[in-house]
Amino acid sequence: MGLVVLAFAFVPFPIASAATTDRHVRIEASSFQYTPEAITVNPGDHVTIDLAATDVVHGLYIDGYELNVTADPGQTASLSFVADRSGTFRFRCSVTCGALHPFMIGKLNVGSNELLWRGLGFAMLAAVAGVWLVRPGNKRL
Ligand SMILES: [Cu+2]
Prior knowledge:
The structure is a single chain. This protein is an alpha+beta fold. The chain has one domain: Immunoglobulin-like (Sandwich). 26% of the residues lie in helices and 38% in strands. The protein contains three helices and nine strands. The strands form two sheets. A five-stranded mixed beta sheet has the order 3-9-8-5-6, with no helix packed on it. A four-stranded mixed beta sheet has the order 2-1-4-7, with no helix packed on it. A hairpin with a 2-residue loop joins strand 1 and strand 2. The longest helix is centred in the C-terminal third of the chain and has 23 residues, at 112-134. It is elongated, with a radius of gyration of 21 Å. Copper (II) ion is lined by residues 58, 93, 95-97, 101, 104.
């Protein structure tokens, strides 16, 4: 049982690695918000963000990745990168677009899905182990 748990902890997670892929996300920027406000990708994904500015010029700067893109009014601009850093990163508008510009903020999650599934997997393993230990007729106890 211990070996199974160890293997589960360190063997690459099949669902997550199978999902490493090209991700195309469209984010609409309007004064003063992003839609969607948060995006989630898997580590290693090739991410392309299409930033569509619906009213005035807006930008999108990703903290931690130090990437920036700006889109003219009514236009779409693209930004491509490999999500090679895990964690949660803020992205924010990089063009002064109005009074509430400093509050134009969104979130990029890289890899939270895998952690979530790994956590669920551990919970299930723990449950299975618990049943196995207390089952009737287990002479090892
Ligand atoms: Cu702005």
